[in-house]
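Holo prediction — 2-acetamido-2-deoxy-beta-D-glucopyranose.
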Amino acid sequence: MQLFSFLSILLTAISVKARPVERGVFDSVGVLDDVLLLDAPAFPDPANSANTVIGLQAFVSLRQIDLGALTTGVEAALKTIGLDIGDKLSNVQERIRLFGAIGLSGKNVKVDVGGCSQLASLTTSGLPDLGMALQNVSVGTCGGAKQFTAQVTTSGLDSRTFNATVFPSPNSGFGVISDIDDTVKVSNVLDKVALAKSTLLDDPVPVTGMPELYASLAKSLNSPQFIYVSGSPFQLYPFLNSFIDTTYSASKGPILLQNLTLTNVQELLDFANSNGILEYKLAMIDRIHGMYPNKKFVAIGDSTQKDPETYGEAFRKFGGDFISCSWIRRVDGANNTDARFAEAFQGVPANKFRTFTDADIPGLQNINVAAGEC
Ligand SMILES: *[C@@H]1O[C@H](CO)[C@@H](O)[C@H](O)[C@H]1NC(C)=O
Ligand SMILES: *[C@@H]1O[C@H](CO)[C@@H](O)[C@H](O)[C@H]1NC(C)=O
Ligand SMILES: *[C@@H]1O[C@H](CO)[C@@H](O)[C@H](O)[C@H]1NC(C)=O
Ligand SMILES: *[C@@H]1O[C@H](CO)[C@@H](O)[C@H](O)[C@H]1NC(C)=O
């Protein structure tokens, strides 16, 4: 509900400026377009494990965005809840930019993935995911590097570079599925004003001890695939990605966000509703299971929204060989009752999940997750 209020503020501020622009089908990316290429997970092709498949995602929009009107609207909306932009104008503009972006359908995005034998090609959708492309693309054989750089092929006239990191991982070993807001980053999801402030104005702050914990998991689990699954809208991707890249540099990984568009108010309403987040996150865990059915995952989240319910349901669906362990941060002000966790983790053995307070964070490093402890 709090998130809904927050988003409705944004939505009101922006009004419905984001009108769909339909252009010629299968247009390639040109100088009038902007491309957001997201970091992506890669997995061995189930049909031929010598080949690599990437779950590649891109968003193509019109290059010009009227940041002035957008900023004025957001500034006014923030004032109504008592927040002043002050000297944070550049933060605000960077973070709201994509909320004003006008997605373009039928755009063909060609991506060259360093070290792989085939080019990838994606086509953006029409409504309701206007401008978004999310496809599994086969890129042939790739070298054994730990990461690949994917770069959008632009026309000769265009000197811009759009790139992202591809994280390949085998269908074995460990992975970490992690929430972002109030799990690795202080977001104050339970407080509308504080959430708006941490999301739009302030420099991001990690939950104390979590970067060190993730760095320790990166070692003890032998370079697990980190995948961040958050209910936030994809428009916040540049902000969240730069936060993870810098603050969680030892545990970088793709970030899966909701593909909400401002032309689809219903989707925004669904996002606001926590059950929508639960369904979305379960769908993302399904997707991850499809990519890595034989990996063991540690699922890390918090008690503000539906992470306990999501991870409990994922355990019941895929079993303890896949959801090996769930850790839930107890956030002050959230429902941290035994009754809630008992219900969420019904059917999950007590040694397969734990809740933790901030004081417990340093001690989590001593749990031998690789040996099956949780
Ligand atoms: C966007 O989200 C909707 C609803 O969750 C889903 O059906 C659709 O496949 C998604 N599209 C993309 C491109 O992610
Ligand atoms: C990605 O593109 C930026 C320019 O936008 C460039 O500075 C950077 O070196 C590129 N990264 C890689 C790994 O190619
Ligand atoms: C990509 O393939 C995996 C494995 O089959 C599947 O789980 C996932 O849903 C697919 N993703 C998309 C976007 O089609
Ligand atoms: C906490 O969750 C439990 C289980 O869902 C529920 O019965 C209880 O009413 C909730 N308490 C609060 C204060 O929301």
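READOUT: The pocket of 2-acetamido-2-deoxy-beta-D-glucopyranose (ligand 2) is lined by residues 149, 161, 163 (CB under 6 Å).
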